[in-house]
Amino acid sequence: MFVKKDEEENSIQWNLKYTGISPVKSHSEDDLPDPIQQSKIHSNRNINLKLKKFKRFDDFNLQEQQQQQSQLNRFSPLSNLDPLASKTTFVTTTFKNNNENFQYETQASNPRRLLTKPNIPNIDINPYNCDNEVGDHIIHVGDVIGVYDPNMENLTRYKSTPSMTSRNGFKIMDLLGKGTFGQVIKCENLADGSIVAIKMIKASEECMVPSFMECKVLQRLQKQQRLLGRNNNSNNNNERNDNQDDHFINFLEEFVYKGHLCIVFELLGPSVLEVLQSNKFHGLHWDLITSFSKQLFHSLENLKMANVIHCDLKPENILLKNNGNPANGNSLKIIDFGASCFENQTVYSYIQSRFYRAPEVVLGLPYTSGIDMWSVGCVIAELYLGIPLFPGQSEYDLMVRIIESKVNVDAIPPKWMLDRSKFSTLFFHYDPEEQKYTRLKSIDEYNIDLKEWKATNNEIIIHHLGYPRDVEKPGKKYFENSDNFCKLILLHRFHKLAHLTDIEKLDVLKKRWIFHKFLQKCLDIDPFKRYTPTEALRDPFITGKWISNYDFEADVDFKDFLTVEKQNIFGKTSLSPSKSNSEKKKGTSPKSQSHDHCTKLENLQL
After folding, report:
1. pLDDT of residue 112
2. 535 with 300: CB under 8 angstroms?
3. What are phi and psi of 429, to 5 degrees?
4. Is the peptide bond before 118 cis (omega within 30 degrees of 0)?
5. Do residues 424 and 446 make contact, with C-beta atoms less than 8 angstroms apart?
6. Using the 8-state DSSP alphabet, how is residue 499 labeled?
7. Is the CB of residue 410 less than 8 Å from the CB of residue 568?
8. What are the boundaries of the region Disordered (predicted)?
9. Terminal CA-to-CA distance of the chain, rounded, Å?
10. pLDDT, tens digit, 9 for 90 and up, residues 248-284
11. pLDDT in tens, 101-154
């Protein structure tokens, strides 16, 4: 390359001024060194960083560099950070150094993250003008609620619990969830620094009344738990018992803030639904299913002892005690007693989430604590399957799934239930000759009758069935064997066990058979034949006694199932790999192997 004379002179002057070194004059094209030879010459050459030419910028204008660095340092409390990191990490210091009038106030003029949407207040909803159009209190991160003011006790804070633990109020940290009754927020108790969950109920009578009932139920459960603890201590029982554990969320206090009832709870871990979701809805391990089942039955025992019906048991309302691994002894706690009632004071008929709704509730019959047992049975089945057992899209679709699954031997609910139900004629066909209900109505029959029911019994339909669809459509089938409960449980994801030997497959089927019989008793359509929590805790599946006590050879149904499904279970070649290799050495033909093995299965020499 060529350099103009003026540029060359300027370059020489620049280098002489700052480095004292004249630049090397550029080569002409003919004088350029051979790149190959140059690479050979410098291939093994070590670079000495102490040479003067590598230091020419170190000494260059040292005073100016120091001035620039001092300007950067005044924006950075930590001088070892690069300018970008220092200015972003300590942005408030940066602004303050540039503008002496800048002030950062966390709780005052600075914007805070909004947690409630929509965020436009409506004075018609709440005279404090702090609620949106749906009745939720508009909250931000950093807001403080529930500050105790004795001069305005009736307006800002109502205290009904005996102890005062939060005179300084609660600082809002995040939104945990929201629903029909209000919002659940994560807060810091400013009195002791503890982190709690607060359920802020909408300021309406239809939401407040059930929530006050929730407080009453939780207080009764806690009182009963204290009595059980005293009895255990008086008996000097040092052994740990699952029934001694408190499987209900710990209720701390409640207060009214700007017309909203606020219920303070302990902060818990993820829900069972989130645990299933983390496992990609493939179901849980047997040990977890058994452990969770025991805890749920102990919870139902305590509820029954207190004459309390939860009325809304589902995976979302069953939480882990903390964020630890559920396999490491993490216990369960039941939450959301907003729909609860006492067994002798049942008020509502439209209760329970549909997937976990008991048949007697669907039929509009009087209910007992047996409906919680049905819900827990559905939850345990979901722990195994990964998704809901009866994902009904309507009351009719739910009844179809329950009956078509053949959970019980009887095709339809017992006669006494249908005779007493006011919805029997809506769901079931009545045969005047036999003078009884004989079958479930088809979709076309149901749609015709539903229109007539809406015209004549509109208020009853809305109150009990919610707002049913105008035209009922067939529900989506999520399981291959949804019409056969036995096959659904025993053959669920059985193709994943193809690597097992035949004997190992039989061992798996034995456990699944016991589990299937256990679920049948938990999900009996007749509430009087359905398992009680105490009976469920004695079941061989829960106790594990089936391993040594259950006689599979005497179980005709199990033998029949193996005979019918042997092709799906063992495949075309019914020998395990190890067995087939030994038989090959003996020279036995595959045909005789299969015949001999089928004979063994028929005799069930287990």
Report:
1. 78
2. no
3. -90, 130
4. yes
5. no
6. T
7. no
8. 573-606
9. 92
10. 999 999 988 998 999 999 999 999 999 999 999 999 9
11. 777 665 445 567 899 998 899 988 888 899 999 999 999 999 999 886 555 544
Give the distance, in angstroms, between the CA of residue 19 and the centroid of all CA atoms in the same chain.
Answer: 69
Answer positive or negative: Cα dihedral of 44, 50, 56, 60.
positive
Q: How far apart are CA 380 and CA 292, in angstroms?
A: 8
What phi and psi values does residue 437 have, to the nearest 5 degrees?
-80, 130
What one-character-per-residue DSSP string does 377-417 give? HHHHHHHHHSS-S---SSHHHHHHHHHHTT-SSSSS--HHH
β-pair partners for 121: none
Active site residue 312: yes
Question: Helices (DSSP H) in 235-307: which residue ranges?
Answer: 272-278, 286-305
Question: Could you give the CA distance from residue 87 to residue 99 in angstroms, rounded to a whole number?
Answer: 14
Set out the domains of the chain in order of their start, with CATH numbers. Answer: 5-98 (no CATH), 105-267 (3.30.200.20), 485-508+537-603 (no CATH)
Bridge partners, 171 (sequence order): 144, 188
Instruction: Please name which of 425, 511, 413 lies closest in space to residue 461, comparing C-alpha atoms.
Output: 425
Q: What is the mean pLDDT of the chain?
A: 79
- Cα–Cα distances (Å) from 296 to 276, 517, 546, in that order, read 17, 18, 21
User: What digits encode the pLDDT tens for the residues 202-213?
Assistant: 998 889 988 999
The token pair that represents 206 in the structure block: 């239809």
Spatial contact of 336 and 342, defined as CB atoms under 8 Å apart: no
Both tokens assigned to 219 = 């207080």
Residue 63, SS3 per DSSP: helix
DSSP codes, 161-209: SS----TT-EEEEEEEEE-SSEEEEEEEETTT--EEEEEEE-SSHHHHH
Residues of the chain with pLDDT > 90: what percent? 47
**Residue 16 and residue 106: Cα distance in Å, rounded?**
56
Residues 180/155, Cβ–Cβ less than 8 Å: no
Residue labelled with tokens 């030997």: 501
pLDDT (0 to 100) of residue 324: 76
Q: Which residues are annotated binding-site positions?
A: 199
Residues 6+ apart with CB under 8 A from 492: 283, 384, 385, 479, 481, 512
Please state the pTM of the whole predicted model.
0.75
What is the rounded average pLDDT of the residues 67-83?
55
Residue type, 603: N
Token digits of residue 589: 């033909």
CA distance 231 to 155: 42
**Which residue has better confidence, 462 or 107?**
462
| Neighbouring C-beta atoms of residue 194, cutoff 10 Å | 15
**What tokens appear for 352 in the block?**
């329970």
Cα separation of 211 and 404, whole Å?
37
Instruction: Please tell me the least confidently modeled range out of 4-8, 539-543, 546-550.
Output: 4-8
Annotated binding site for ATP: 199
* 519 burial level (CB within 10 Å; 0-12, 13-18, 19+): buried
Identified catalytic residue from 136, 143, 312, 539: 312
Buried b / exposed e along 147-185 (16+ C-beta atoms within 10 A): bbeeeeeeebbebeeeeeebeebbbbbebbebeebbbbb
Question: What average pLDDT does range 178-203 have in this prediction?
Answer: 93
